[in-house]
Design goal:
Keywords: Electron transport, Membrane, Mitochondrion, Mitochondrion inner membrane, Respiratory chain, Transmembrane, Transmembrane helix, Transport
Organism: Oncorhynchus kisutch (Coho salmon)
Protein name: NADH dehydrogenase [ubiquinone] 1 subunit C2
Subcellular location: Mitochondrion inner membrane
Helix content: 55-70%
Oligomer: single chain
Strand content: under 5%
GO biological process, one term: mitochondrial electron transport, NADH to ubiquinone
Radius of gyration: 26 Å
Largest sheet: none
Number of helices: 3
Length: 109
Amino acid sequence: MGLPDEAKALPPPGIINRNSVWLGVIGWCSAMLQNALNRRPPMKSGIHRQALLASIGWFIGYHVTKHENYTYARLDRDMNEYVRLHPENFSDKEKKTFAEIVEPFHPIR
């Protein structure tokens, strides 16, 4: 599943983003969990697997962010196009002052 060509016009997401960090941490934790389940020292053994799974998680998170950015950009484009084609549904309302909204105050003594 790749992104369409119109997604290439969007700027690339930052290398450090929310999805990359979370999925990188999940990859690292899964390597440590595998070490613990195999009764090896979780932090010390399999450093190469920890780095590999963290890198894979980071890579997947980066591409999830690209897809997320494209989806939100497409939804924004469609919504703005709808607003442009149907301006009668989005007319400006008469602005009221704060005094017109709030009930008059009469202190009781």
